[in-house]
Amino acid sequence: MNTPEFFTAELSGGVVKRATRLADGRDLIYFDDPDTTLPTERAIDARTLDARPATATMRRDVLTGDWVSIAAARQNRAFLPPAHLDPLAPQTPTNPSEVPSLYDVVVFENKSPSFGPALARATDDAPAADDAPRDLDDLDSPGLGRTRTSVGRCEVVCFSPAHEGSFGTQSRTRARTVIEAWADRTAALSALPGIAQVFPFENRGEEIGVTLRHPHGQIYSYPYITPRTQSLLRSIAREGDDLFARILDFEAAGPRVVLDAEHWLAYVPFAARWPIELHLAPRRHVADFTELTGAERDELATVYLRLLRGVDALYDTPTPYIAAWHQAPVAVGRDSVRLHLQLTSPRRAADKLKYLAGSEAAMGAWIGDIPPETAADRLRAAVASIPEVSL
């Protein structure tokens, strides 16, 4: 095994990036807090690992036009391991985890990805994509039985070396480091060949399907524009390029505002589907995390933590959720699709969840259980009860 080199760079907010490789060639990047106490030296990954799995295959659903990635290697991923075998914790003599050294924040390529290396990233350890999508027109072409290799990238973002927690349990300083990591990775992944859209997100809670309790999120990089964003682009074409600006004006003047900050507005949307649904958007137009100013990133660290802690304050136990950061596609809609968070939870009461049954799951026809204005009242009170976010 060749000893990997480290690439170091200083990012916005005093965050330091240290990039290297794992034993099987996957990228691993440390993001150090500006006030980190960690040494500059990091251990190398000395494990002997199996070859990386072949890149998955996508199949096109001719009835919807959607591409479905068939990633059988994901069947073998870890499922709620005990703390002493946490694969996202720093390595120890008894835990050969994915991360060689103690860290503040770390990002690495998923070992069992839904979307994998393209021809340009082929190595001895990473099989090349043998039928990669040609372009977006190729993916939209008609025909039965169409397949393509699932070219793309899936990364894991560890918010902390702690065994349990979530984004909302982090300090403001740590939250700011994660935001910097999201911006850095959005830029890097958007520049990879064949990537059409980059999606950072956090799944929280076993009710959502989380298989690791370690505080972490993921970043998916797709070879296509996702169905959700294609629908958004059609709405913008119908309503006008200034749609997001008008939505923010509409919500800011209404009864569903949850948190009103200098650079950000949080609100329950007018037609919320979920019992808990919260949107957060910057007041000015930015297409993705890379376009946020330092001041916007600083404020986001505080605002986002207050919102997540407010969601947890609704009940006596932590609330399961999906925190989805929608960004503009890499090459289209940059002037109209605005970066925004869509946080959703199926929790409709302390001991009840909303399940997607016939109308929602089969037909996409949603029925809301809680009026959005009622949900906003409860969220606004919960967020107001949260004390100042600590450093």
From TrEMBL:
GO molecular function (one): UDP-glucose:hexose-1-phosphate uridylyltransferase activity
Keyword Nucleotidyltransferase: yes
Spans annotated as Disordered: 118-145
Designated gene of the protein: galT
Record Pfam families: GalP_UDP_tr_C (PF02744), GalP_UDP_transf (PF01087)
Gene source species: Microbacterium aquimaris
Membrane spanning residue stretches: none
Catalytic activity entry: alpha-D-galactose 1-phosphate + UDP-alpha-D-glucose = alpha-D-glucose 1-phosphate + UDP-alpha-D-galactose
Compositional bias ranges of the Low complexity kind: 118-130
Boundaries of every Galactose-1-phosphate uridyl transferase N-terminal domain copy: 94-225
Family per similarity comment: Belongs to the galactose-1-phosphate uridylyltransferase type 1 family.
Pathway assignment: Carbohydrate metabolism; galactose metabolism
Keywords assigned: Carbohydrate metabolism, Galactose metabolism, Metal-binding, Nucleotidyltransferase, Transferase, Zinc
Stored InterPro entries: GalP_UDPtransf1, GalP_UDPtransf1_His-AS, GalP_Utransf_C, GalP_Utransf_N, HIT-like_sf
Cofactor(s), by name: Zn(2+)
Domain of life: Bacteria
Lineage: Bacteria, Bacillati, Actinomycetota, Actinomycetes, Micrococcales
Protein EC: 2.7.7.12
Ranges where the Galactose-1-phosphate uridyl transferase C-terminal domain occurs: 253-381
Protein name as it appears in the record: Galactose-1-phosphate uridylyltransferase
